[in-house]
């Protein structure tokens, strides 16, 4: 089966140009001023529309366990929402189980991922240090193509590891060609601040932000970067939310620490004032790190422009408002931490970034596709529009607009973080390995067509990303 996309405007992280694309067996075979159909090719007319490489969301928590139910999206509803929103690959976090090996845990997650509509891979979370973990790291990369792990500096007793454990794991990971994602918040200080707040009766949602102040993120970020430097290993700082943490990253880059930084759409667009909304509406916006004071947004956008921030990930960790978020109505510490965002990340970053003039089209493609692909061992198969790449493509009409509402979303949540916001542009078609999975804005791809992403090793001692 061959497909020709005609008259579109191809956008990559380096260029914007008008061209026709020929796709054969899921791969981009030709790019030319004009490609004429010869026999039975399917022809898609993309006149006046942008053609972007498919979005790559490297920060999702589909099927994340929570009480008896889990997060609101599994791999079916979550990847359907992703497709609708222009995301053609995800890397999801596993969740470790006490006493289970990393490889056994991964097999369970690969099984969960099988019904996906789009391509999917995993970062393995390590919450328990032992010698066995160190032995497994090279196998994870070589046998399974899992070339990223994640460590937490918060959530003591559940996920948190200490500095010595971090050092040992990161060092071994670096040697094995694995990059370490770090959730950088000082868990000990936060736990104490929460206890103090509760003891004073400060239980409203805004205290979620007050008990996780920017200094707890900045301190942990600096410490994580120092540990990476000591271990001579690559590090990926997830969900950078504030200027103070970004400053630590800038300093580490000057010391040649091999660091890649991510922010999330909600930190770019929403702010701390949402945590004071009445009638517990504020509960919808609880995530960690918390939404910050608005002035931080400018620093995050500038960080994207300057290359200090390489990726934007959704941190999609969706909880229902009714029944899950409301568990914390009387105590902010009981509100599940996490927000939905997978379906809107592409549109939100395009609208507030490109349309409102904060970043270029090239930078948009960089943070939404090319940067994530290069960081996590998917390049040069995913992350650009070039001959030999997978035909993961988003056809986008920039000359229209739409209003975001939970009533029209695919994600399985009873609210939308961006409810009522009008965004410029609309995704008309999405192709995954050459197959149309979104047609006229509607998902037509079927369950189980997604493929497992076996990723390349991440070389240590050199910058994994050069963009
Ligand atoms: Zn997360």
Automatic annotation (TrEMBL):
| Species classification | Bacteria, Bacillati, Bacillota, Bacilli, Bacillales
Record bears the keyword Cell cycle: no
What protein name is recorded for this chain? Dihydropyrimidinase
Which key words are in the record? Hydrolase, Metal-binding
Q: Does the keyword Protein biosynthesis apply?
A: no
What single Pfam family name could you report for this chain, choosing any that match? Amidohydro_1
PANTHER family, per database record? COLLAPSIN RESPONSE MEDIATOR PROTEIN, HYDRANTOINASE/DIHYDROPYRIMIDINASE FAMILY MEMBER
The UniProt family comment states:
Belongs to the metallo-dependent hydrolases superfamily. Hydantoinase/dihydropyrimidinase family.
Using the record's annotation, list all stretches that form the Amidohydrolase-related domain.
Answer: 50-436
| Cofactor(s) needed for function | Zn(2+)
Q: Which domain of life is it from?
A: Bacteria
């Amino acid at each position: 089966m061959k497909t020709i996309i005609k008259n579109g405007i191809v956008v990559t992280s380096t260029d914007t140009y008008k061209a026709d694309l020929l796709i054969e067996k899921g791969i981009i075979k030709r790019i030319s001023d004009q490609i004429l159909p010869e026999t039975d090719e399917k022809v898609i007319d993309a006149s006046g529309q942008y053609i972007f490489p498919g979005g790559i969301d490297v920060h999702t928590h589909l099927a994340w366990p929570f009480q008896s139910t889990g997060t609101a999206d599994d791999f079916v509803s979550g990847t359907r929402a992703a497709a609708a929103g222009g995301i053609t690959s995800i890397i999801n976090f596993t969740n470790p189980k006490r006493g289970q090996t990393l490889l056994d845990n991964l097999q369970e997650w690969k099984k969960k991922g099988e019904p996906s509509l789009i391509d999917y891979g995993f970062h393995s979370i390590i919450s328990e240090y032992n010698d066995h973990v160190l032995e497994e790291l090279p196998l994870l990369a070589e046998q399974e193509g899992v070339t990223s792990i994640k460590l937490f500096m918060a959530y003591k007793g559940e996920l948190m590891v200490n500095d010595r454990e971090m050092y040992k794991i990161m060092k071994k990971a670096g040697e094995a060609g694995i990059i370490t994602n770090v959730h950088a918040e000082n868990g000990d200080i936060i736990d104490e601040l929460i206890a103090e707040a509760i003891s004073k009766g400060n239980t409203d949602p805004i205290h979620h932000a007050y008990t996780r102040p920017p200094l707890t993120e900045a301190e942990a970020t600096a410490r994580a970067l120092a540990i990476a430097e000591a271990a001579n290993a690559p590090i990926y700082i997830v969900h950078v939310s504030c200027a103070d943490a970004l400053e630590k990253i800038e300093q580490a880059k000057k010391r040649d620490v091999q660091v890649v930084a991510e922010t999330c759409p909600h930190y770019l667009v929403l702010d701390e004032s949402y945590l004071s909304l009445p009638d517990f509406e504020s509960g919808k916006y609880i995530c960690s790190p918390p939404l910050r004071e608005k002035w931080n947004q400018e620093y995050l956008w500038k960080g994207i422009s300057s290359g200090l921030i390489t990726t934007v990930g959704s941190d999609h960790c969706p909880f229902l408002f009714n029944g899950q978020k409301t568990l914390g109505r009387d105590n902010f510490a009981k509100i599940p931490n996490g927000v939905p965002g997978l379906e809107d990340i592409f549109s939100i970053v395009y609208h507030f970034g490109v349309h409102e003039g904060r970043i270029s089209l090239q930078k948009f493609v960089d943070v939404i596709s090319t940067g994530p692909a290069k960081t996590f061992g998917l390049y040069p198969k995913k992350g650009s529009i070039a001959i030999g790449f997978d035909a993961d493509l988003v056809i986008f009409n920039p000359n229209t607009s739409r209003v975001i509402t939970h009533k029209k979303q695919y994600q399985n949540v009873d609210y939308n973080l961006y409810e009522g916001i009008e965004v410029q542009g609309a995704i008309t078609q999405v192709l995954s390995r050459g197959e149309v999975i979104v047609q006229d804005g509607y998902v037509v791809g079927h369950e189980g067509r997604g493929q497992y992403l076996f990723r390349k090793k991440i070389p240590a001692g050199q910058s994994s990303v050069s963009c």
